Amino acid sequence: MRKKVTVVGAGHVGATLAQRIAEAELADVVLVDVVDGVPQGKGLDLLEAGPVLGYDSRITGSNGYDETAGSDIIVITAGLARKPGMSRDDLLAANGDIVKKVAQETGRRSPHAIMIVVTNPMDVMAFVAMKASGFKREKVVGMGGVLDSARFRAFIALELGVSVENTHAFVLGGHGDSMVPLPRYSTVAGIPITELMSADRISRLVERTRNGGAEIVALLKTGSAYYAPSAATLEMVEAMLLDKKKILPCSTWLEGEYGVKGAFAGVPVKLGTAGVLQVVEIKLRADEQAAFMKSVDAVRAGCEKFM
Fold it and tell me: Does domain 3-143 have CATH number 3.40.50.720?
C-alpha cells in the first residue's frame, strides 16, 4: 500500500508539491482547499497526467477533511500569499486562524502523521500548528530553512560558476529578514566559501538570500514563490517517507539546544519516518550566536500573539 500525503492549500505551492510527489511516486496525495472545484479539478488534471508520465500515484481533491484520514504526512500550505511591500509577519493574524483550523482538523483525523508547515510566517505558524494539533515536537516541522539554504546555494553557484550539486549551505534562525546564513559552514566541494571569495562578495550573497522571497514577490507582482518552496518541501517529504535520515536545516521546537528553550527556529535536524529524529548542534561564534538569538526573539514576538 502506498503512503498517503495530505496537502492543504491547492494554490501554486500546494498544487506544484502534489505534482512533484506524484511524479516521484512517493505517495498518493489528497489535495484540500476551501474553494469549491479547485482541488478536485487540479487533482483530476494531475491524475490524467499519470499515463503520460508513467506514475500510478492517485491524486484526490476535496473541500473537506474526511478524505485526509490516515495520512502519513500533512503539509500545510494554506494561507494568504505575500504581496509587494508585505513582510512575512504582515500575514500573521489571518494565516494564524487558517493554520489553527487546518491543524486541528487534519491532526484529529491523522493523529500519527507528521506535520510540515509551509505557510508564512512559517516559524510562528509551526508553533500555531503544534499547539492546535497537540502533536509532539518531533511531529511538527517548518520548511523554511531548506528553502533559504537552496537559495543561498543557487546564488553561490551563480557567483562562482560551479554546479549547484557542489554547493552546500547552512541558514539558521527564523524564516524571515533576521535569518542567519553561515558562510563558514557553506562549502563548494567541501571548500568553505570564505576561502573562495571576498567578504564583500559573501555579504552580497547573504543579503540576497535574506531577501530571496521578497525579490520574487516584487518581480511577480501578483504572487509569491512556489517552484523552489515546493521543491524544498518535497525534499523533506522524501526524507521522511523513505526514512533517509537526511540532515536538513528545518524549523523545529527547541528545548535547550543552541541555548534556546521553548521556541521554533531553523537548525540542522535529522529527518526520518518518525519526524525529527535529532537536532544537530554545531558550534557558533559569539557573533553568530547573537544573530541567531535575535532571530529567535523575532519569532517569539510573533508567537506571543497565539499564547
Answer: yes
